[in-house]
């Protein structure tokens, strides 16, 4: 379950299992959007706000929380200085 900006619960309203090329996801939504005063600011969809969540989105959210800490940012900034030049050279040589 997720919450919209006004605190309404977004529940699963659709699901796609995926295939060999694309991963599956779950759509979350709410019928509270129809009478919400912030609908125009929140979404342009006539069906209301829909949130699409993939299986690995929870891991991405956890990493975002970890990356907010200054010590972690400092450690990753050192790694960036070591790794980025390698990708730059590879891109230059291999296109």
Mean pLDDT: 86
Sheet with most strands: 4 strands, antiparallel
Order of helices and strands: EEEHEHH
- Rg over CA atoms, rounded to whole Å, is 20 Å
Number of strands: 4
Strand order of the largest sheet: 1-2-3-4
Uncertain parts: none
State the share of residues found in helices, binned by percent.
40-55%
Distance between the termini: 43 Å
Could you say which structural class the secondary elements and strand pairing correspond to? alpha+beta
Write the layout of secondary structure elements.
Elements: E1 2-3, E2 9-18, E3 23-29, H1 39-42, E4 50-54, H2 57-66, H3 70-94
Antiparallel strand pairs: 1-2, 2-3, 3-4
